[in-house]
């Protein structure tokens, strides 16, 4: 796919995938043919030097317009010729320029551009053509075999004549003559291995232990020289179109890795006059310097293309690249002046003019990193993941400066917002869940220490039984009456219990206070009014975020403080008035709330007094009954069991000499609600 532009000067076609440009001057055009092809209609252009260009995808209605344009500006008749569709496989072969045409009668059946032929082999009455693989097609034609019948003419072998015609125009490189220079044992990342690079006048020869590659300079699209992040190595990247192939693998990029410390002295296999004439001062016969400099200098002179280096981008660490992962392999992403290049596995080059939009996304595995997504106009998506979040600001500024579309810019839950979320999600003070877990951990530790001190049980380092004891202690705290006086059968158990109970009593008082304080807070009570500063901050928070994309919550607070401090007195007065209005509204609401709560509190007090009166009456009856009854311990009076029922389990001590009066006082302090004797006994029995 690409764009075809016809002008008075000539025809220009730009490949939208690779960016390669075909430029045909109007003076070079020899013939123009219009014909019906598989996809609509096609245009075939032949030049005077034998090159053929074919473009498909035209509509039938466009013929008249093109024909008139060719007549007016190129002085060419656009001829209409149809292909033969009889389906015959017997015909004649005609060689014309760079094209092999198989004809039946006067009509062509198919044409083969000989520049696509990678190999030509002969057999008995047979010629086999092998082709370069087409990367843009799902299925590629790899070979065609022609049967050539023997002729009666002596001295001329038709098979050899056919092969020679093909080879004279085919893209089959044969190493003839001496190399200009040789670089030995260079480290190559793709294709992987150590290769000798022989530099010939028209092509590059990679000679390895297993494979050989011949790369014509015409297939070199771009050259890149990229510094490694460690500042000790250099990548030299050669972009190829069409790529070199090994079996089913295609290498679009040739990547060489050099150490900056390696030096070389180079002598070109040419005399000084030839060097001067050929390279016009760009190279000299004898050169010396860093190995990467020499290779890049020779390649630049022979290929006649500029070497692309990183621009003014600098990452968080000061390097000109960003460490990231692409397709599960870690590598380096280089933001260039006109595109991005990723090395090294697999290498990717994306030009800015083919980018539809970019996207900053939250990291999938951890919040300490983010993903950088690029979608091209063809719909291909590239995701560079695991980029350190410190690189976000630098990369965002770079993308912004290059005026690339950012997919989630401007949305409320967009990039800036989402980045703020994960930018600060690691900070302890804002993580509510983490705070809660820490608090629970502290409580567990305290309870575990208390229970292990009191019980005297053995503890293990890797497994802490104190945590289980903690659960038991909580049961005692929350339901003291249910766990009272569980029987006098085991004296050892009774001796151990008081120590535990004494501990639990200490913990219980603050817990009661906590419950009371919580009960004291009324959810219906009016909320306190905000200060002038907080009202201003709430109104301006989004504006500050939009002015400073990617700003963290802590930095946002600092920035807001600075802005508030710098604000004029007149502007502050406006917010002071708003705060004063909010305070008056609050006071008014509190008065209304207070009137309602007073009536409720008076009702509660009356019910409390009534309960206390009932308790005193019950106590008095119990004391009277206790004075009159003098029966044995086996037949205990209900009064005695009643008085015992007031003794909370927490206050039963191991010392039997404690007076009854002090026990009564303890039970009164504790304020245990009186229960009927039967229910109390049944509760203790069930324990």
TrEMBL record:
GO biological process terms, semicolon-separated: DNA repair; DNA replication; regulation of chromatin organization
DNA-binding region: 526-594
UniProt feature, compositional bias: Low complexity: 478-489, 628-645
Keywords for this protein: Chromosome, DNA damage, DNA repair, DNA replication, DNA-binding, Nucleus, Transcription, Transcription regulation
Basic residues: compositionally biased ranges: 498-512
Keyword DNA-binding applies: yes
Function: Component of the FACT complex, a general chromatin factor that acts to reorganize nucleosomes. The FACT complex is involved in multiple processes that require DNA as a template such as mRNA elongation, DNA replication and DNA repair. During transcription elongation the FACT complex acts as a histone chaperone that both destabilizes and restores nucleosomal structure.
Compositionally biased spans, kind Polar residues: 676-687
Name of the protein in question: FACT complex subunit SSRP1
Residue spans of biased composition, Acidic residues class: 455-477
Segments of skewed composition (Basic and acidic residues): 513-525, 615-626
Species, as recorded: Baryphthengus martii
Residues annotated as domain HMG box: 526-594
Region called Disordered, residue ranges: 439-532, 588-687
